[in-house]
């Protein structure tokens, strides 16, 4: 069998960003609008700091306005809700992203519910999850699953009808919306999780396998149907024998690439697409708000 296609998420994301930049320019030229993304960061979680820095940089590179709101970890829930309500009313803000996780004393559900659904560029608000589940085009779709879908559609020439898709993991951020998106594309979708009886058996039937569990290199070569498209959402830091650390996905990349038809690497696969889709969602939100 010929080698698998290694899907270049970095190059793909660059194309998405170029499209977003063009849309931003059009909004400026024809509507006199500069889309704005507000990012709220509570506390000093190092991973969140890195994400937020990248988001801010790329937002500006696409010609959009980035508004950053950093708050101490002891901010009260009420103060954070008040900040969100203010952003809902701010006409310069078209998209709102509250970086997760939040400190334990703040309810993430309450904060997400406070975001105006039309500005919810993460697609986490129940209005948006409901719109996605009912197949509405008006849904704001969570960024990581949206990026995965774009890469899958590209690999399959645009049509996923009838494909058997297996999603490994049932998180609200990735697994559940990914399943809904693939169902909307007329795939036959199975979601497997830690209580599934025989995950391996389910995976072996998949034409499309999306792994989002956070378990380093869990998915092995024997689990893969020859020719399948494998999308690896996992980002796991593991320690090597020499004591150094490295990033690996949920898929055992080196062995799986010998049997699958296409695979996303970690890093350089899904990761870059997530931020690109956040920018795409922000410009979509701005267009809808200025129709
Ligand atoms: N933390 C990790 N990933 C995400 C994401 O996609 N959105 C938000 N808001 N927080 C995150």
From TrEMBL:
Homodimer. Residues 142-289 form the Tetrahydrofolate dehydrogenase/cyclohydrolase NAD(P)-binding domain. One of its GO terms (cellular component) is cytosol. This is Bifunctional protein FolD. Catalyzes the oxidation of 5,10-methylenetetrahydrofolate to 5,10-methenyltetrahydrofolate and then the hydrolysis of 5,10-methenyltetrahydrofolate to 10-formyltetrahydrofolate. Keywords: Amino-acid biosynthesis, Histidine biosynthesis, Hydrolase, Methionine biosynthesis, Multifunctional enzyme, NADP, One-carbon metabolism, Oxidoreductase, Purine biosynthesis. NADP(+) binds at residues 169-171, 235. PANTHER family: C-1-TETRAHYDROFOLATE SYNTHASE, CYTOPLASMIC, C-1-TETRAHYDROFOLATE SYNTHASE, CYTOPLASMIC-RELATED. InterPro entries: Aminoacid_DH-like_N_sf, NAD(P)-bd_dom_sf, THF_DH/CycHdrlase, THF_DH/CycHdrlase_cat_dom, THF_DH/CycHdrlase_CS, THF_DH/CycHdrlase_NAD-bd_dom.
């Amino acid at each position: 069998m010929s080698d698998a296609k290694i899907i270049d998420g970095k190059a793909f994301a660059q194309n998405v960003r170029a499209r977003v930049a063009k849309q931003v320019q059009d909004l400026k030229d024809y509507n006199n609008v500069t889309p704005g993304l507000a990012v709220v960061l509570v506390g000093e979680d190092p991973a969140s700091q890195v994400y937020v820095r990248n988001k801010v940089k790329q937002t500006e590179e696409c010609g959009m306005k980035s508004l950053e709101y950093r708050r101490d970890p002891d901010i009260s829930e009420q103060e954070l809700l008040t900040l969100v309500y203010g952003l809902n009313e701010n006409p310069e803000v078209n998209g709102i992203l509250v970086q997760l996780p939040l400190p334990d004393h703040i309810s993430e559900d309450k904060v997400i519910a406070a975001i105006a659904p039309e500005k919810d560029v993460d697609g986490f608000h129940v209005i948006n999850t409901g719109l996605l589940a009912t197949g509405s085009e008006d849904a704001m779709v969570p960024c990581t699953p949206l990026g995965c879908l774009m890469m899958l559609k590209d690999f399959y020439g645009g049509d996923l009808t009838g494909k058997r898709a297996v999603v490994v993991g049932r998180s609200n951020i990735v697994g559940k919306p990914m399943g809904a998106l693939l169902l909307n594309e007329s795939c036959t979708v199975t979601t497997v999780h830690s209580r599934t009886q025989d995950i391996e058996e389910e995976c072996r039937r998949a034409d499309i396998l999306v792994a989002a569990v956070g378990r380093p290199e869990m998915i092995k070569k024997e689990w893969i149907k020859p020719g399948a498209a494998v999308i690896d959402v996992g980002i796991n830091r593991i320690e090597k024998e020499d004591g150094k650390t490295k990033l690996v996905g949920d898929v055992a990349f080196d062995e799986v690439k010998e049997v699958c038809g296409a695979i996303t690497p970690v890093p350089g696969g899904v990761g870059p697409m997530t931020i690109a889709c956040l920018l795409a969602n922000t410009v979509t939100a701005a267009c809808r708000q200025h129709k």
